Amino acid sequence: MSQDILIIYYSRNGATAALANEVARGVARIDSMAARVRTVSPVSPTTEATDPEVPESGAPYVDHDDLEECAGLIIGSPTRFGNMAAPLKYFIDTLSGQWLSGTLAGKPGAVFTSTGSLHGGQETTLLSMMLPLIHHGMLITGLTYTADDLLAETDSGGTPYGASHVSGTLGDRPFTEIEKKLARNLGARVADIARRLAQP
């Protein structure tokens, strides 16, 4: 029976969703592990606005039960002024019950992001997304300079703090092979750690 690594993301123009799918491919490389990909609903400044219960396309919305059932968690967001986007933060802010009960404590966690430019705040976004995971008692997992070839190969996305993608100011820059590789490596690392933690 496989264990799930929960991948939660917010994506407005599709780049972060595509990165989430690469992370999921990495999870699938590890025996007995599977990716459960979920998104969060957008937020609106209009308080009367409501969204459909099921997205029109893409991954389903995340549910608190997904967090109870996962063996690890990877979250992703586009960068908004060096921080995660409001919809992902809004969802995280609903997790007081999971924090109090220790639902995520001791599980591996990781982060990923997409920005319009190389200096668009990738690393601060990744670091700020780690903070709530630390408060939940998660084991933070990043990428390595040795096994993941960060030093030798990256000239676009990719940091030791997590996977990333430079989408271009118009969001039309394609993924590089190294960005895809690093995203898959991140998924595989979290899944491998979760699998080893579950072994007696």
Describe the structure in your own words.
Helices cover 36% and strands 20% of the residues. With 200 residues, the chain is of the alpha/beta class. It contains 7 helices and 7 strands; from the N terminus they run βαβαββααβαβαβα. Strands 1, 2, 3, 4, 5, 6 and 7 form a 7-stranded mixed sheet that branches. Helix 1 (15-28) links the parallel strand 1 (3-9) and strand 2 (33-39). Helix 1 (15-28) crosses helix 7 (177-198). It is globular.
Nutshell version of this structure?
By secondary structure, the chain is of the alpha/beta class. It contains seven helices and seven strands, in the order βαβαββααβαβαβα.
Q: Could you tell me the strand content as a percent range? A: 15-25%
Give the helices and strands as they follow along the chain.
EHEHEEHHEHEHEH
Overall mean confidence score, pLDDT: 90
How many E strands? 7
> How large, in whole angstroms, is the Cα Rg?
16 Å
Q: Percentage of helical residues?
A: 25-40%
Taking the sheet with the most strands, its summary is: 7 strands, mixed
By oligomeric state, this entry counts as: single chain
> Total number of helical segments?
7
Give the helix/strand class: alpha/beta
Q: What's the end-to-end separation, in Å?
A: 16 Å
The shape, in one word, is globular
Low-confidence sequence ranges: none
Key terms:
36% helix, single chain, 7 strands, alpha/beta, 7-stranded mixed β-sheet, 200 residues
List the helices and strands and how they pair.
Blueprint lengths: L2 E7 L5 H14 L4 E7 L24 H6 L2 E9 L2 E2 L1 H7 L3 H6 L6 E8 L6 H14 L3 E2 L9 H4 L9 E4 L10 H22 L2
Helix pairs in contact: 1-7
